[in-house]
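can u do me a favor
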């Protein structure tokens, strides 16, 4: 089989194509023929050493995949050859509170999914949604589950709430789509009129261009009549957090997901103390139970994942470069 492995960190060009034997499933394992994978910002962060900098060189990257069962090991009862499947992002988190198993996530301390075949425990897979292509389904394990757990956590978003999303990456677009299906109002931020038009077409009620409105937090608050938004899908990190504090209502929940911007914090303590929020919740994607909950929701609602582009396996580096430009609108997918 063909497989990409990440050499010394620092450059996308450290991704090298190799030929290796197809693995054989052991007891309780499933051999998956990978049909599509999708890229997340964490994959870029791994390349540049910003995320799990102590991860060993030589790992197969990428956390999200869709494929079909090619073989099963002894004792496997949940899947049969030919079944279509997607992986669970964290293979050791089955449900309940986060068990602190980040070191076992794909691409950090164990091989990921940028390979033609992969063996995993049957408990690390779920059935692929009916009606989705492999390319669409491959977008779900990280970005869609992250958005879902952010919206449906201990204090779920309900109809009539206002949700603020940031940018046009995978998590933000899934959050927009899911929030609208729940019945919430969505205010989205973006960097260009062209992207604003596409966000409106996806259902955003209001769109703020943060390049022409650097104080977009105040504008978001004004759009709610001064009350502030109820839920903020915070993907920017230090670069956006100061405005996030302004945008939120006194009872807002900030769901801290990403760190797309620079590391400089830029927030004074009193701004944090007096900021518009009640809860800051760190989102670690989600468990197998969260993934299954999302898939049950998708089975009852029509949601089409937003895909920026699909690249053949031989053009994997082009796909990574596309994500690295930050110009993508939605998910970047590689098909095998």
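np, heres the sequence
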């Amino acid at each position: 089989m063909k497989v990409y492995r990440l050499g010394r960190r620092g450059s996308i060009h450290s991704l090298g194509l190799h030929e290796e034997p197809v693995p054989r499933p052991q007891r309780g394992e499933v051999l998956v023929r990978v049909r599509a994978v999708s890229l997340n910002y964490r994959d870029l962060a791994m390349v540049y050493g910003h995320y799990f900098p102590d991860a060993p060189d030589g790992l197969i990257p990428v956390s999200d995949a869709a494929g079909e069962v090619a073989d099963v090991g002894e004792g496997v009862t949940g899947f049969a050859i030919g079944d279509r499947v997607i992986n669970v992002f964290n293979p050791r988190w089955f449900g309940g509170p986060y068990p602190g198993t980040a070191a076992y996530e794909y691409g950090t301390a164990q091989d990921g999914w940028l390979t033609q075949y992969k063996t995993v425990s049957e408990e690390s897979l779920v059935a692929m949604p009916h009606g989705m292509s492999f390319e669409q389904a491959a977008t779900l394990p990280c970005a869609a589950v992250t958005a879902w757990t952010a919206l449906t956590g201990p204090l779920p978003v309900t109809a009539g709430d206002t949700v603020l999303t940031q940018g046009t990456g995978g998590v933000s677009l899934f959050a927009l789509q899911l929030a609208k299906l729940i019945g919430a109002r969505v205010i989205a931020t973006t960097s260009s009129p062209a992207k604003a038009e596409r966000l409106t077409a996806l259902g955003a009620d209001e769109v703020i261009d943060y390049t022409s409105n650097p104080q977009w937090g105040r504008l978001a608050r004004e759009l709610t009549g001064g009350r502030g938004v109820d839920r903020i899908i915070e993907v920017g990190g230090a670069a956006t957090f100061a405005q996030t504090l302004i945008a939120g209502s006194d009872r807002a929940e900030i769901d801290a997901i990403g760190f797309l911007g620079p590391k400089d914090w830029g927030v004074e303590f009193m701004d944090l103390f007096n900021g518009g929020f009640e809860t800051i919740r760190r989102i670690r994607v989600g468990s197998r139970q969260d993934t299954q909950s999302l898939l049950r929701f998708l089975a009852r609602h029509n949601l089409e994942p937003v895909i920026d582009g699909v690249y053949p396996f031989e053009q994997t580096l082009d796909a990574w470069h596309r994500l690295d430009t930050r110009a993508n609108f939605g998910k970047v997918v590689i098909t095998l």
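The radius of gyration is 20 Å. hope that helps!!
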